Structure formats: structure tokens, C-alpha cells
């Protein structure tokens, strides 16, 4: 149960709803996806004593790499290194790969987008409230405040900048209703609160090696 909870915490901002990047970006300006890197710092505030969550995530770094129809979300913390890959096959349909990079045994899991979507149905119905006040500056960008209400009663506090377009729901479905790029978000859990704050947003050419699973081309992997 605790493993499932940790897994959910890591993957909050990358919950899928469609089957390809092309479908997600139709009719939108996707030029910013040619090479975008967003680095987030993870901080955990505790109500009481230390927990597994705080020991695993506090002080960690999460980086989102997007290049065309490829993406990778990588978490590096004191006790865990994990990546999610979103890679197109020969038919351009995206496949999701979860790779545990740390520990004695590397663990890989392969999922279709539909399988990923089925795991995260609780994020299908969201309500968004935008605020005219309460904004702040993050990573050099002026950000506005928003509240994302989940169907189960939980909420996510987010700060977004309208200087960048909203990412496709493929990468940030929880924030698809916001008019800009989310640079900070936080949410509560049983023992405290987790906050992801962007420290850098860069538009640059990304090395193809970033999207290789364990340093090997996709066709050579066995699952």
C-alpha cells in the first residue's frame, strides 16, 4: 500500500488521457515542445515526525524533458532515482515506460496510454479556479495563482505563467485547464504537504540520449 502511495506521489503531474502527442497538440501552438526543460525542486513539510515520504522526496529534483513527441520525467532524490518515458513507436503511438534507476535491481514497466489512463481515472473530472490576486515570481517569471479541485475532494494549489503556453494534457492533465505553464504546485497528504517549485525553464536542443532507456535504443529492450 505504501509503495502504491509513493508511486502516485511521483506521478501526479503526468497522468494521461489520449493516445498520442499529435492528438493532444492538434490546434495548439506546440513550437515550445521542440526542446523544453523544466527543473523542479521538491520540498516536504511535515506536521509531526519524519516519514518515509519526507525521507524519500525532500530536497529532491524532478526534471521534465520534452522534445517533439518524446518526453521524460526524472526524479532524483536521496533514496530514489526513477524515470518515466513517453516514447513513440513506429506507428507514432506513445508507450509509457517506468524505470527505477536506483537500488539493487532495476525495475521496468511498460504500459499503453490506455492502461495508464485506466490507472488514473480519478483525475478525469477536475474543476479549476483562477485568482486575480496572490501571484508571485518563480524562476524569473510572473505567475498567477490557481486552485485545481479533484473529484475526491482533494485540491492542488498551482502557480502558472502565461508567458508559456499550457502543456498538452498528455504531460500535465491536472493543469490542462490553466492558461499557462505551471511552475509551482503543492498538495497535502496524510502527514504533511509536498511542493514542487521550478528553479529553471529552458528552451534548448535536447540530446537524443536523454530518451534512451537505460542507455539502450528502444528496440533492443526486453520486457
Q: Which architecture per CATH? A: Clam
How is the main sheet built? 12 strands, antiparallel
Instruction: Please give the count of helices.
Output: 4
Work out the count of structural domains: 1
Q: Would you tell me the overall average pLDDT?
A: 76
What is the general shape? globular
Could you give the count of β-strands?
A: 12
CATH topology title: outer membrane lipoprotein receptor (LolB), chain A
**Residue fraction in strands:** 35-45%
**Percentage of residues assigned to helices:** 10-25%
Spell out the helices and strands N to C: HHEHEEEEEHEEEEEE
CATH class: Mainly Beta
Unreliable runs:
1-31, 216-223
Structural class: mainly beta
Give the C-alpha Rg: 17 Å
Report the end-to-end length measured between terminal Cα atoms: 24 Å
Would you kindly provide a written description of the structure presented here, covering whatever features stand out?
The chain is mostly beta strands. The protein has a single domain (2-211), classed as outer membrane lipoprotein receptor (LolB), chain A (Clam). 12% of the residues lie in helices and 41% in strands. Strands 1, 2, 3, 4, 5, 6, 7, 8, 9, 10, 11 and 12 form a twelve-stranded antiparallel sheet that branches. The radius of gyration is 17 Å and the shape is globular.
Amino acid at each position: 500500500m505504501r509503495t502504491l502511495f509513493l508511486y502516485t506521489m511521483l506521478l501526479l503531474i503526468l497522468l494521461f488521457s489520449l493516445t498520442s502527442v499529435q492528438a493532444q497538440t492538434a490546434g495548439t501552438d506546440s513550437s515550445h515542445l521542440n526542446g523544453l526543460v523544466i527543473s523542479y525542486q521538491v520540498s516536504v513539510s511535515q506536521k509531526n515526525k519524519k516519514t518515509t515520504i519526507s525521507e524519500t522526496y525532500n530536497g529532491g529534483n524532478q526534471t521534465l524533458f520534452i522534445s517533439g513527441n518524446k518526453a521524460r520525467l526524472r526524479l532524483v532524490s536521496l533514496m530514489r532515482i526513477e524515470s518515466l518515458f513517453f516514447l513513440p513507436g513506429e506507428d507514432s503511438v506513445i508507450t509509457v515506460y517506468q524505470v527505477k534507476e536506483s537500488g539493487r535491481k532495476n525495475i521496468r514497466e511498460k504500459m499503453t496510454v490506455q492502461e495508464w489512463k485506466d490507472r488514473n481515472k480519478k483525475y478525469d473530472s477536475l474543476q479549476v479556479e483562477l485568482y486575480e490576486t496572490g501571484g508571485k515570481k518563480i524562476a524569473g517569471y510572473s505567475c498567477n495563482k490557481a486552485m485545481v479541485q479533484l473529484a475526491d475532494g482533494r485540491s492542488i494549489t498551482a502557480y502558472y505563467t502565461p508567458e508559456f503556453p499550457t502543456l498538452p494534457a498528455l504531460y500535465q492533465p491536472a493543469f490542462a485547464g490553466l492558461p499557462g505553464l505551471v511552475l509551482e504546485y503543492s498538495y497535502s497528504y496524510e502527514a504533511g504537504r509536498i511542493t514542487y517549485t521550478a528553479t529553471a525553464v529552458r528552451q534548448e536542443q535536447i540530446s537524443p540520449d536523454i530518451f534512451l532507456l537505460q542507455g539502450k535504443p528502444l528496440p533492443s529492450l526486453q520486457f
